Amino acid sequence: MDFLTLLQVLDTSVRLATPLLLACLAGLYSERSGVVDIGLEGKMLAAAFFSAAVAFYSGSAWVGLLAGVGASVVLAVIHGLASVTFRGNQLISGVAINFLAAGMTVLVAQSWFRQGGRTPPLEGDARFNPIELPFAIGPKDAEAAGKPLSQMIAEAGPLQQFYSELISGHSSLVYLALLTVPLTWWLLFRTRFGLRLRAVGENPAAVDTAGVSVVWLRYAAVLICGVLCGVAGAYLSSALQAGFVKDMTAGRGFIALAALIFAKWRPVYALWACLLFGLFQALELRPDIIENVSGIKVQVQLLGALPYILTVVILAGFVGKAIPPKASAEPYIKER
Amino acid sequence: MDKMPKWADIVLIPLISLLLAAFFSALVILAIGENPIEALKLMVDGALMRSSGWGYTLYYATNFIFTGLAVSVAFHARLFNIGGEGQAMLGGLGVALCCLYVPWPHWSLAILGASVGAALFGALWALIPAYLQAKRGSHIVITTIMFNFIAAAILNYVLVELLRPVGAMDPASAKFPDATHLPSFQDMFSTETNKMFRGAPANVTFFLALAASVFVWLLMWRTKLGYQIRAFGHSESGALYAGISPVRITVIAMLISGALAGMMSVNTTMGESERLILNSTEGAGFIGIAVALMGRNHPFGVLLAAILFGFLYQGGAELALWTSIPRELIVVIQALVILFTGALDNMVREPLEKLFIAMRRRNA
Amino acid sequence: MTAPAIELKGISKAFGPVQANKDISISVQPGTIHGIIGENGAGKSTLMSILYGFYKADAGEIFIKGQKTLIPDSQAAIRAGIGMVFQHFKLVENFTVLENIILGAEDGAMLNSSLGNARKELKHLAEEYGLNVNPDEVIENLSVGHQQRVEILKALYRKAEILILDEPTGVLTPAEADQLFRILDRLREEGKTIILITHKLREIMEYTDTVSVMRRGEMTATVKTSETSPEHLAELMVGRKVLLRVDKKPAEPGATVLDIKGLRVVDEAGVERVKGIDLTVRAGEIVGIAGVAGNGQSELLEVLGGFADGTGTITMNGAEIPLSGHGADGQARRAAGISHVPEDRQREGLIMEFAAWENTVFGYHHSPEIQNGLLMDNKGIYTEAEAKMQRFDVRPPDPKLAAKNFSGGNQQKIVLAREIERNPDLLLIGQPTRGVDIGAIEFIHQQVVNLRDQGKAILLVSVELEEILSLADRVVVMFDGHITGERDAAQTNEKELGLLMAGITDTSAVANGNGGNDTTQQEVPADG
Questions:
Q1: Best label site of A147, A199, B228, C522, fewest CB within 10 Å?
Q2: What does the radius of gyration of chain C's CA atoms come to, in whole angstroms?
Q3: Least confident of A204-213, A279-288, C6-15, C233-242
Q4: Which pLDDT tens digits describe chain C residue by residue (528 residues)?
Q5: Could you tell me which chain B residue has the CA closest to the CA of C331?
Q6: Which range of residues forms the domain containing residue C524?
Q7: Alpha helices per DSSP H over C367-493
Q8: Residue that is last in its domain, among C421, C439, C464
Q9: Which residues in chain A touch residue B328, judged by CB atoms under 8 angstroms apart?
Q10: Which of C421, C451, C471 is the last residue before a domain boundary?
Q11: Window 204-263 of B, Cβ < 8 Å to C
């Protein structure tokens, strides 16, 4: 495999890792506060639909993003009501939210667009288009030189190839997602909010008796989770792809959950885990590469299952133990 | 004293939750510009007013009885088995292998063999998460979710690469031999003059599901194994004191749960499609969660809830046929039922408890 | 007279149908140690949790330094200068001491400056009150005593003037408890007001200035400690003259039933809890294990009951029983003739959601006589349960009622009925009367003695010395996983046992020959 092919695969990995990363960090906030969220999938799906739909009507991807975040936050509030206010089973609530999103998106899509549960394709500013970083070779350079872009990059030096192919040319949301990693780390380990958030996920009674509201903290975490899932969903339908199709999240919410466990609920590990799982997905699209490299015919279906298998192995504690926040999934009940 | 009478817990709360779910479903139907009353009429007409409608309703209900029982048996051991879907998929594989490679002389033997195959494969698929939970503390909810995806990948691989007949395009096994054809309700109940359940997929597996309900009821409330499962589910420390092994009970409860989920595919794979296809489970594994929650983990409740969901499924199909409401409406209803009977249970329960306590005070 | 530091007026609180506090009024003078004493479940902790804003009172008013104060949450309590050390510490176990101390009391949105300031303040507090603890140590690596210090530091860091301690010595060794009280004395000298919740008369008599007594959710009296006696307080606590003496004949011990040699138990955290003990229990005698909670008694019972692993040898009626692996579970123990009334009936002895009749076979669900082919003989179990509940005077005598709906004493009777009527060779019984109403205590004690008189061996574990002295024939004292002494119950007294419980084996100064059942004690200070 030549260097450029490798870059192309990595480029695709980054694109595919982005929604995983956003959802994974979303889950991190929620679970660090002690609220388990297996409804990441549903929130992403709802956001994917509403951002695409509103982007289609408004012609602006950013307005679409807002709508997507709004939809995801509504579901997050439902999860908050069930898990925090009414101290219900968080797992069951997550399951319900996934179904709610799966059903509602198709229902509303059919009602608004009548295209069999999809939105019309998004064009122009209704999508998040690639950003070309300074000095990178992009479509405009190719046009000016009168050569196809791929040829121009192929002719460039390795550093420029690396820069143009892998670093440059992603949508703004990709860079935003990457920035969220250090931001989350800082928030979690360097601020008062982070201290309290981590504490409430470990021992809510300690937070409560210290005079801080458990309910407020957990809602804050659940809402941040909603916002990040919203961005993840918007990225899916208006950056990675051009429009919404039924069930387009395709299990990404669960892969993100797997990545979260893989990352042991730490933001920087989460980045690596999501990039790894993004790479698996990229390779799933290019089985020919693995065959060329390893000489073995690889079953694409089984490659797709790799993140799940890895997560089970991690959970089984064979490769380092993943210990979740202690108060995970437990509603805080003060009075007996 | 209990905070409220038993009947309120068993009947009133699920009923109120159901009404809430129905109310919000009606709002959804209104919001997409359709008439909820008309929709309900259509659903009732299509699912309950003709024998063929019942044939579909009971076909779906059969699936949901199995998966609902599967979820509820695990719930009794305080295990949340979200893996019914994957266990049912693997169960389908068990059925297919039994039907394709064993020369059955008669369907009655074939259904027994296929049930064993389905139960075995389903149980096996539940065994690994169960073992990991019991021995290594890996959270069973996450592992069973992961196993659903792994099962789908395996099934996909098996169908595309191994079981697909040479030259066939779609990822499905060969058709099962005729000897494995299960009598449908149409075969069983039609007379010369009066065709009943015309074209409907309901088949003899329904009675297998009823038998499974009775079996689960006996198991949970009449045997010492059920006693141990329930005791463990209520209190692990208590179980240890009584010499009930948590590892053993976790594994056994999940094996039973997986076997029940797997047996669902006798209905879909053997009774309906008569070959193994991709996605024959159609989410029934997940509906089992709603059914178990609504049925309060009791086989009789599960039976009622399964029939209700069977009705919703068939009614939903009718709606999709005659109106612009897509089938996904039932997914929404299912979500609302899980939400209100499961996650938001306290929203209904707490005000009711207060009401009953207040009433008791006034009477006292 | 100065305004009271705290004054509560007419506080009431119900948990569902249970009235935990009924119209309680109390006044606490500044600069004093004020004890609140009462039996388990008397409502002490509830009352203090209300004062700390952890629970909300249904009715009543709170005055702090004469000012009417609303305390809807802990934040308000902290603002009013109240700090509380809960019985179960409210610490984040994987945080450092420093992080735990600033949690909720940070200076600003950024952590670094808060941590820096707290470090300085902590050093200051450590010097002032002798509260030394490493600020960078993670909580889970600290001993219980040090964790408690962190809790006190948390309160002081928040400038608490009033400090509430809920059963602070329950989990401490005598030495740690002694240190604690020295710290509390220092705090009082500095003008802080301390409320000490306990059910131990000794602590009240020794350390408090004033004492309030609670019984069944009501405040029965507030008196100066110097003007009262343990007998008087005990009477106020339980509502009538206490007769803790059990009528029993001298024991007639027979053959050795249980023989323990070199038993060691390591808990899940890897801490050795039982450090090589030898013990025998003979037919027809009650051996009582005395000791402060957490000195290995629970682990001893768990190994004997088959739900913890141990090493060493244990023989039962001459046959060795396995201590780990196959055959070391509750079922095997029951088959060997051991019955067990566990220390925690709610978490272990009963399934709270099960009906009483189902609980009457819990642990014996394999017994052949309750099977009916493949199924359990539910009718038979029910009928037998009804009779059992009659015999053991369980009220209400309704086998269909869930275990959680019985009172503590009646729950215990259900467990006792089940375990005693199996006719065991050996009965293990832990904290038989914890959380049990006075009326039931006598009944329970009598049942145990009757079993002894039938020639059965009984191993009793209790943290209540009075219970040990009145029930046991032979007393064995455990301290820090060792047996520090063995005495004939009729030949010892609380003073002597108290020293042994503190790990002091030279008891010649206090030993006497005739003080056996003398429960009117003046106790030895733990630091004596």
A1: C522
A2: 25
A3: C233-242
A4: 578 999 999 999 988 767 889 999 999 999 999 999 887 678 888 999 999 998 999 999 999 999 999 999 999 999 999 999 998 899 999 999 999 999 999 999 999 999 999 999 999 998 888 888 999 999 999 988 899 999 999 999 999 999 999 989 877 776 788 889 999 999 999 999 999 998 777 888 899 999 999 988 899 999 999 999 877 887 787 665 555 567 788 889 999 999 999 999 998 777 889 999 999 999 999 999 998 777 899 999 999 999 899 999 999 999 999 999 888 999 999 999 999 999 999 999 999 999 999 999 999 999 999 999 999 999 999 999 999 999 999 989 999 999 998 888 899 999 999 999 999 999 999 999 887 776 788 889 999 999 999 999 999 999 877 789 889 999 999 988 999 999 999 888 877 887 888 777 877 766 654 433 433 333 333 332
A5: B243
A6: 251-337+424-528
A7: 378-391, 408-420, 438-453, 465-471
A8: C421
A9: 102-104, 106-107, 110, 117
A10: C421
A11: 218, 221-224, 227-228, 230-231, 234-235, 237-238, 240-245
Angle at B277 between CA B271 and CA B282, to 5 degrees: 80
Q: Residues 437 to 466 of C: which have CB under 8 A from any B CB?
A: none
Pair type for strands C67-69 and C59-64: antiparallel
C213 touches C233 (CB < 8 A): yes
Contact status, residue C281 vs residue C300, Cβ threshold 8 Å: no
Residues of B in contact with A86 (CB under 8 A): 343-347, 350
**Chain C residue numbers touching A185 (CB-CB < 8 A):** none
Q: What is the pTM of this model?
A: 0.88
Tell whether C487 and C396 lie within a shared domain.
no
Domain assignment present for residue C355? The answer is: yes
Domain total in chain C: 3
CB contact under 8 A, B242 and C365: yes
Q: Do A312 and B147 touch (CB under 8 A)?
A: yes
Distance CA C236, CA C364 (A): 41
Shared domain check, C410 and C429: no
Q: Where are the domains of chain B?
A: 61-184+196-219+254-303
Record: contact B343-A96, CB cut-off 8 A: yes
**Distances B220 to B75, B227, B233, B304 between C-alpha atoms, Å:** 12, 6, 12, 18
| CA nearest to B220 within chain C | C375
CA atoms within 13 A on the CB side of B35: 5
pLDDT in tens, B116-161: 999 999 999 999 999 999 998 888 998 999 999 999 999 999 998 8
Tell if the CB–CB gap between C93 and A202 is shorter than 8 Å.
yes
Q: What angle do CA B142, B147, B148 make, to 5 degrees?
A: 100
CB-nearest to B241 from C348, C365, C371 is C348
Say whether both C322 and C469 belong to one domain.
yes
Q: Round to whole Å and give the CA distance between C443 and B346.
A: 40
Find the CATH number of the domain harbouring C449.
3.40.50.300
pLDDT score at C522: 36
Q: Which element (helix H / strand E) includes B61?
A: helix B51-76
Q: Which residues of C touch B227 (CB under 8 A)?
A: 358, 365, 376
- Average model confidence (pLDDT) across chain B: 93
Domain ranges of chain A: 3-131+170-316
CATH number 2.30.29 given to A3-131+170-316: no
Asked if C354's CB is within 8 angstroms of B244's CB, the reply is no
The CA–CA distances, whole Å, from B251 to B74, B126, B237 equal 10, 8, 17
Q: Measure CB to CB from residue C305 to each of B218, B238, B241 and give the nearest one.
A: B241
One domain for residues C394 and C519: no
User: Contacts of residue B231 in chain C, CB cutoff 8 Å?
Assistant: 351, 354, 362
Mutation target among B215, B225, B228, B241 for the C interface, most CBs of C within 10 A: B241
Question: CB A102 to CB B156 under 8 A?
Answer: no
CB contact under 8 A, A209 and C111: no
Q: Subunits touching C (CB < 8 Å, at least 3 pairs)?
A: A, B
Distance from CA of A191 to the nearest CA of C (A): 4
Whether residues C330 and C269 fall in one domain: yes
- C-beta separation of A210 from C95 below 8 A: no
C375 three-state secondary structure: strand
